[in-house]
Amino acid sequence: MAARPVVRKALGLGGHGSGLQQAVEHGKSTLFFREVCRTLPWVVHNYKLEELTTVSQLRRNVNQLFRRFEEVKTPEAVDLLIYKGREELETDFCPVGLCSSQMIIMQHKQRHHLIDKYVGLPATTEPKPKPGNLSPFLAQFYLSN
Amino acid sequence: MAAQAAPAPADDLIEVTVDGKPVKVPKGSNVLQACDAAGVDVPRFCYHQRLSIAGNCRMCLVEVEKSPKPVASCAMPAGPGMNIKTSTPLVKKAREGVMEFLLINHPLDCPICDQGGECDLQDQAMAFGSDRSRFTEVKRAVVDKNLGPLVKTVMTRCIHCTRCVRFAKEVAGVEDLGMTGRGRDSEIGTYVERMLTSELSANVIDLCPVGALTAKPSAFTFRNWELASTESVDVSDALGSAIRVDARGPEVFRVTPRLNDAINQEWISDKARFQVDALRLQRLSQPLVRGAGGGLEPATWPRALAAAAEGLARARGHELRGVAGRLADVESVVALKDLLNRLGLAGVDGADSVLLVGTDPRAEAPVLNARLRALALAGVPFASIGAPLDLTFPLLAAGDVVREGWNGFAVLADAAGTVGALDLGFVPGAGARGVAPRAVYLLGADDYEEGDVPADAFVVYQGHHGERGAARADVVLPGAAYTEKFGTYVNAEGRAQSTKAAVGPPGAARDDWKVLRALSEVMGAPLPYDTLAGVRARLAEVAPHLARRGALEPPLWLGADALGVGGAAGKPAADPLATRVTNFYQTDAISRASKTMARCVRARQNPVPGL
After folding, report:
1. Cross-chain CB nearest to B249 (options A112, A121, A122)
2. Which cofactors, if any, are listed as required (chain B) (predicted)?
3. Which residues of B are less than 8 Å from A141 in CB distance?
4. How far is B484 from chain A (nearest CA, A)?
5. Lowest-pLDDT range of A28-42, A99-113, B49-63, B578-592
6. Number of A:B CB contacts under 8 A?
7. B521 and A112 in contact by Cβ < 8 A?
């Protein structure tokens, strides 16, 4: 779904220009994903996550978070998602000196925020249980503890 | 362990007055206990109700009428008619003076001290100290001591209350710590560098009123005000000590003892305290199914349950075997028992003499050993049959202890789940003997006998740590550890107690009884309970005493015939009687996964570094 004109204007995106379309095709999100991946070794070291996970495991988990929005193709929506991702990265993830904002060097997220959101993520995506033949107990069991 | 101190008869009471309020205390109490009885808080550092009286910190000075000087209330016996005053200008000045002397040499490093926020010295300096010091010289510095992998020392902070020295000597029964030097040069230490050799050594961390002795494994990892506490029960041994589990977010950071006079008083073993680092290591956080390539592969719950159901369905009747592990809670055991069915200590405090048979309480339940030691020091004769033991108290020859007409018999279980599983009658049925199982359900069982799990059997492992059982399994179902679930455990005395969830289970792990309940539905034989209350109602049907939490259930003594011992059938065993716990620090899946416990094992092999 295309973003409303007012949103596009606010983000300084203009209309559906061919330039934006090109940016998506060339993988703006892929570039951002690589940027995230480059920070992961620092994250693991800085938050002492070595005993819980590895860089490659964390990369797989982040990859899954990206793939959750695989069907989003609208350039404005992709930009918005990257903007939100960058916000998350730079308040959690950014190594000192790589980014320019003052917000970045402050570690707004603590270790347990990262564990909850990125480390504890199950590597397999649970399919939604089919309603009907399951008892309420089993339906709830498949969803969460 | 059940006997409580009976209230003193009326003629054994004396009346004293504290701050104008009359109060009756038992004869032999000291002035500080009288103040406590009157509800008046007297500051203290060296006094501790379970240790001998040292009287060396001088913080508990109070004024007693007709006494020319303030008196140390912990060391002064209360006399009848004594008039004690705790809020006079004399007392205030005395406290300020003592505090000023203590702070002369205490470093001002509260911002980097792990005790900060729960430090007696910090609190009392705020409440009773002055706001300035007249001391202008240089503070002293003391070399830190290496006490092993558990206790971190910053000896400059020590105020020489000697609580740790008295604990080691009187409760733990090891003369490891002592004071050397005089006056300004006095130091607490081990004289030659060596680690603390007691299994209760880390209790000195709780006893230390300042930050001189703190926890080494968790140094600098948390501030105590960040932690959320949950009152729970320990499962590292069969004693079921009362503990408090402190967590921040999804991680357990600390376990401390909780007061329970009937079980652990206020001590816990080093294993109970420091095995919690394993709760984030080697965890099973998602279901696994053995793939075509022979390795375990991640799977979703529906797929894993379907695979488990298919494998288990191949076994008929007695070909299906369930093995409950050392850490299985009663709820999951009853669920497993129900599922399989659908498909096919006595008190010691009153003892007059004790004979230990083939057991080593120091390794199996160190806190119990400390209580036995107190009994032994009080004159109760102890003897042991089996391998030679060092229990920190003297043992006599068995012939001097055993008497005619004995009726006391207690079994010290060596794992938290044992008594509960036996209470539920989780024993092989008569038809199952001699039948090789085609499918085995391991409920947290990593210490199974090889013979219980034939090589060609289909194995389902349900548990929280990836170890021997999970490696053997065809399907792995992730469960919750004891800090992550509400589970009932029955301790060696027969006391049913419940753990409480301090954090959630990791990843896709689920409560153990829920896994069994879900599996039963997938197998087409759903268990009739959907809630924890439902499981506990079922428990109460099977074993009514499990519904009475915290109450003691004495064992039913059926006589030697019921055990199949004695009489003509009794033959001496070929193996010497010895404890099954050969390594105190590593007894179950959790403690074996703990890095701290592994460090303890290494340190125990070489208690004096450099030798």
Report:
1. A112
2. [4Fe-4S] cluster; [2Fe-2S] cluster
3. 301, 510, 514, 517-518
4. 11
5. A99-113
6. 63
7. no
How many angstroms separate the CA of residue A113 from the nearest CA in chain B?
Answer: 8
Six token digits for residue B36:
């406590």
What number of other Cβ atoms are within 10 A of residue B90's Cβ? 13
Strand locations in B388-473 (E): 439-443, 458-463
Interface of B with A in 525-554 (CB under 8 A): 526, 530
Give B 271-290 residues with CB within 8 A of chain A. Answer: 280-281, 285-286
Q: Is A124 on the interface with B (CB under 8 A)?
A: yes
The CB density around residue B26, as the number of other CB atoms within 10 Å, is: 16
What gap in Å lies between CA A11 and CA A5, rounded to an integer?
Answer: 10
Q: Chain A 7-66, CB below 8 Å of chain B: which residues?
A: 51-52
User: Which pLDDT band, with edges at 50, 70 and 90, does A3 fall under?
Assistant: very low
Residue of B nearest to A53 (CA): B281
Tell me: the pLDDT tens digits for B336-383? 989 988 886 445 555 667 777 777 888 888 888 888 888 888 777 887
Cβ contact, residue pair B521, A138, below 8 Å = yes
Instruction: Give the pLDDT band (50/70/90) at residue B330.
Output: very high
How far apart CA B298 and CA B516 sit, in angstroms, is 19
Return the residue in A117, A128, A141, A144 with the most chain B beta carbons within 10 A, the one to mutate for interface testing.
Answer: A141
Instruction: Check B510 against A136: CB less than 8 A apart.
Output: no
Task: Give the per-residue pLDDT at B206.
Answer: 96
Distance (Å) from the alpha carbon of B333 to chain A's nearest alpha carbon? 19
- Cα distance between residue A19 and residue B241, in whole Å: 68
The 3-class SS string of B464-495 reads: CECCHHHHHCCEEEECCCCCCCCCEEECCCCE
**Two tokens, residue B99:** 């505090």
Instruction: Report the complex ipTM.
Output: 0.82
Distance CA A23, CA B447 (A): 58
B514 residue type, one letter: K
B318 vs B200: CA distance, rounded Å: 45
Check residue B360 and give its pLDDT.
81
CA distance B167 to B174: 9
Question: Is B83 a residue whose pLDDT tops 90?
Answer: yes
B250 touches chain A (CB under 8 A): yes
pLDDT at res. B430: 62
The predicted model scores a pTM of: 0.84
Are B251 and A129 a contacting pair at CB < 8 A? no
On chain B, the residues whose CB falls within 8 A of the CB of A136 are: 530
**Cβ neighbours of A52 in B, within 8 Å:** 280
Tokens of B174: 């090891």
Give me the percent of chain A exceeding a pLDDT of 90.
12
B8 DSSP assignment: P
| pLDDT, tens digit (0-9, with 9 covering 90-100), for A45-65 | 888 888 888 999 899 888 988
Query: Is A144 within the bounds of a domain?
Result: no
Per the CB < 8 Å rule, is B249 touching A141?
no
- Radius of gyration (Cα) for chain A, nearest Å? 18
Say how many domains are in chain A.
1
**Residue A12: inside a domain, yes or no?**
no
Q: If DSSP codes are grouped into helix, strand and coil, which group holds residue B323?
A: strand
* Domain range list for chain B: 13-93, 105-215
B502 in A contact zone (CB under 8 Å): no
Class of B105-215 per CATH?
Answer: alpha beta
Average pLDDT, rounded, for chain B: 87
Range(s) of the domain holding residue A54:
20-121
Is residue A4 included in any domain, yes or no?
no
Which top CATH class is B13-93?
alpha beta
In a domain, A15, yes or no: no
Give the mean model confidence (pLDDT) for residues B394-418.
69
Q: Does B249 touch chain A (CB under 8 A)?
A: yes
